[in-house]
Write a structure and sequence with these properties.
With 291 residues, this protein is mainly β. It is 4% helix and 48% strand. The two termini are 32 Å apart. The mean pLDDT is 96.
């Protein structure tokens, strides 16, 4: 049985764009180095998509953002000058390190609308890399390794698992997979990591007679070997790795030191972060308080 079951909570990013927030959770602040996990959708975006629905430029420190889509498309722009369209099955991996700003917009869908569904996760950086130089990299779907077995398909987005290794540069041991499992098949979990979880995007799972449904994240105890079976065709995200120790989180900032977050807050408020060169006419102001 899972040690913790986390239910999705609805969260409005502004402009009516809602996400399903899973991590952090009061009883589970992280799973391995994963400190944040948002389900973006599924949303049926009606044309024309208003600019207010976009995620305007905003800052990050101390983490890598991991954006992965199942449907739809988004356009990433950042203060390093990168502009990148992301399509289903592709990966945007942005390491904020000492500081970066970026935006996420619906340029390609604005006139036509369409369905959007995906995940954004944040991976905290080990202390020795928290102030690393920011960077950005994009991977096409064909660059990410795939596992195929009877009734099971999985794409390894990052890290190592099941004998596969992703080309993505990571800063600590982790795994992150998109998995599709047919009804009646068992779901494997990597055994080499102390912290492991799965998120049910769609479908149903059974563990020891208990049914779990879409929108739930199941966090497993260290060294447990759960017998997980798909009750119907099911889409999952598997994630975990080595824990990094306590982290402070405020808005979009992650750090092992509270004073570093206070500095980042002051820097954003004072305009000391650069904005994306071709998306620099607006930004999200520093919140006065955090809900």
């Amino acid at each position: 049985m899972p040690e913790i079951v986390i239910e999705t909570r609805r969260h409005d990013l502004g402009g009516g764009f809602e996400v399903g927030r899973v991590l952090p959770f009061r009883k589970c602040r992280s799973v391995g180095p994963f400190v944040f996990f948002d389900r973006m959708g599924p949303h049926d975006m009606v044309a024309p998509i208003p600019l207010e629905r976009d995620v305007r430029p905003h800052p990050h420190i101390g983490l890598s953002t991991v954006t992965y889509l199942f449907e739809g498309e988004m356009t990433h722009r950042d203060s390093l000058g990168y502009k990148q369209l992301i399509l289903p099955g592709e990966l945007n991996w942005m390491t904020a390190g000492a500081g970066i700003s970026h935006s996420e917009r619906f340029d390609g869908m604005r006139a036509t609308g369409g369905r959007l569904d995906g995940i954004q996760a944040w991976v905290a950086l080990p202390e020795e890399y928290e102030e690393t130089k920011p960077s950005f990299v994009h991977y096409n779907a064909f660059e990410l390794p795939v596992m195929r077995e009877e009734g099971l398909w999985a794409r390894l987005i990052a890290g190592s698992a099941f004998g596969l290794e992703s080309p993505v540069k990571v800063h600590s041991p982790l795994f992150y997979l998109h998995m599709e499992v047919s009804m009646g098949m068992r779901v494997p979990l990597p055994r080499a990591y102390p912290e492991r979880a799965l998120y049910i995007n769609s479908g149903k799972l059974q563990i020891q007679g208990q049914i779990y449904v879409a929108g739930q994240m199941l966090v497993f105890a260290r060294d447990s070997l759960p017998d997980v079976m798909a009750q119907e065709n099911t889409r999952l995200m598997l994630l975990g790795g080595e824990p990094l120790g306590p982290r402070h989180m405020w808005w979009n900032f992650i750090s092992s030191r509270k004073e570093r977050i206070e500095q980042a807050k002051a820097d954003w408020k004072a305009g000391k972060f650069s904005l994306p060169p071709d998306d620099n006419t607006e930004f999200i102001p520093l919140p006065e308080t955090m809900a």
